[in-house]
Structure formats: structure tokens, C-alpha cells
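Working notes for the structural subgroup meeting. M.R. asked for a predicted model of this chain before we commit to crystallization trials. I am recording the input and output together here so anyone reviewing the notebook later can reproduce the run.

Input as submitted:
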Amino acid sequence: MNSLDGIRILDLSRVLAGPWCTQTLADLGADVIKIERPGAGDDTRSWGPPFLKDAEGKETAEAAYYLGTNRNKRSLTCDISKPDGQALIRELVMHCQVFIENFKVGDMARYGLDYDSLKALNPRLVYCSVTGFGQTGPYCDRAGYDYAIQGIGGLMSVTGERDDLGGGPQKVGVAVADLFTGMYASVGILAALRHAEKTGVGQFVDMALLDTQVAMLANLGANYLVSGKAPGRAGNAHQNIVPYQVFEVRASAKAAVGERDHLILAVGNDGQYAKFCDVAGHSELAKDARFVKNTDRVKNRSVLVPLLEKIMLTRTKADWLSALEAAKVPCGAINNLSEVFADPQVAARHMVTTWQHAHQKELKLVASPLKLSVTPVRNDHVPPQLGQHTSELLQEVLGYDLEKIERLKDKDVI
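Returned structure, recorded in C-alpha cell form:
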């Protein structure tokens, strides 16, 4: 049994924010019907390399990007630009609790698939729309892309090396505005489902990437609203805690000439700072009035950090990590992805799953991080091939016979 058994979702979203939301809900047991364009499918199917390779080592049409965001779903192809396609979607809506799309504002109304049209058919329907800027406001008609949203929403103004060190705006390495919007959308959908359960009334969930990005500013957003001062880029340092940043350490004996090594020191409170100073052999820095309290360390960052930089260069990464971990001082290595997936903790938490795919018998994918003791996440459906479940779903959900399905195929509707 899964948490969302009995919930069926009609998913007209594509690329990342919407599919990330529905993948999360699918992991939890929802039956997600992924609607894709006949012949092309989700844009991310072609976003490679890398592409999945078949048994002979040849590249297939399945991009890794697509595979990473569409597990536990079933694919049904439908051309919603055609009246018969729109009619098919409306018929499916009668059998679903959730509808999600990420088209531009107004597009769904042109197809007769907007919230007002569909709630007339299914009053309990939870309808989630994911756009760049939401359904209202002066930007609502604009297309929204994660990269632009990271800029407009302030994230790039606080990401990257300090300007006085030659830095400039940087985006985050993954599309965090898309991913966070997908996660917030899943929370909103679950809340709306709970309301529909109690009242029999569905609702519209209006998710915007920009709203999410502004919310993600978290403590930095609060800092600005309280102080009126816009924070700048701080590189790998923390705006409110010192020392909480990356430090260069002495290179190991095996390092190549000129190779540098680093670690993260993440001292979160005054007690941890005192322990760090003891480990470092400089307990006097824990007693210095300029550095005793975090507030003092933040104010005197420019004095303390250069002192610590010299100290950190006296030992190798392995030496520091061993000593700091033993003293319960938060710290960490900076791993590349090869090191991440070889990490024993990642392995112990089962963060890689193996799937049986038509093209590859042992397809490895990143697992869901959700760990539920009674209703664990499922691994039922490998990311589907384009239209893989079209006939199956039309027979199972709508009771179509093969003749009717063939007629739709002949019209290029499915």
C-alpha cells in the first residue's frame, strides 16, 4: 500500500517543474497519466547527450534528463490541439482527482481545458497550473524559464564570488526554481486534495516560479526586509554565521603539482567554535573578545577569516576531517558526482535504484529521498517510453475498445 493509492493525476506538464511535482506524487502512489505530444513527447526526451544506450551500446531516444524526472508514470499520447484530443482529455478528467499543466497563461482556455471548463465536469478536481509568473500581475503573459527566474528573483545577486574578488552573478548548478516550484506544487496539491476530501469541492492551485524563487530567499529575504540593506554575493561564506565557508587546506602528498584541496567548515554556534579552536590548536581565538560570540565574529569577519585561512593550510583535508568529526565540529568534503555515488552513506540510504528498462536491463536512477515507515515510496514504473501506455489506459480508464482506439490513431489524435 502507498500513501496516495486511489489518486489519479492527469499530467499535461513537461520539462521540469511540473514533472518534478508529479514524479514526487507518483512515488507516493498516485497513478500519474503523463500526456505527451504524439511523435515528440516531453521536450526533455531529446535533451541530451547523455542518452540511454541499448544492449548493443547504441544511443536511444531516451535522454537522461527525461529519465530522471518521470519514473512511476504512464505515458499516453494525445494531440490537444485537435478537437478530438480535447474531448479525450475532458473525458479523462472525469476519472481523475488532479489535473496539472504548465502552459502559458490563457493557452488552456483556448483548448477548453481551463479550470472553469473542467470544474464544470468534475467539481472535486484539483487543478494546478505552473507558470513563470502566475495567473495575475504585469508579467503573467511572459514565458518563464528557471535561468531568468533565478536572475529576476534575486538568487543570482547572492550567488557567486564576492564582487571585490572579481566575482559576478552566478546561477545555481541545477534548476532550483523549477525544482522548488515542483515541490511546493506537490504540497499545494496535497492540501487541496485534503480539502476536497472533507468538502467535495476542488480548487485552483496557482504556482509561479517567481513566487517560489522569492520565497526561497529565506533568511536573506528576511535580512533585507528587516534591515533595508540588500545583501551581496558572499562566495562560499555564510551571510549570518562565521566561520561557515570553504577553506583551502594543505594538499595531500598524492596531489599533483599545483593541485589545491578544500573543505567546508560549518561552525553553527559558539560551542562548536570553541571546539574548533581547540582542534586547531588555537584555543586563544575562542577567548578573544572579538570572536567569542557569533555576532562578534560576523562583525569581525575580515579579521578572523584571514587568521583561519592560515591555520587551515597547516593540515590536509583528511587530517582536518578526521579531527573535526571526532570533536563533533560540522565539516565536510566537496565531492564530485563520482564521489557522491560512491559515498557509503549515500549507498546506505539507498539513494540509487536499479530498473528494468526495455533498452537497458540495469538502468540506474537517483531514488526518492522520502523514507516512510508504513507506506514507502514505490518503484513500479520505469520512466515510460513515448505513448507506451496509450492503449492500456484508454481501455482501463475509459473502457475504449480496440476499434475506437484505432480510429483515434488513424486521425493522429493519439
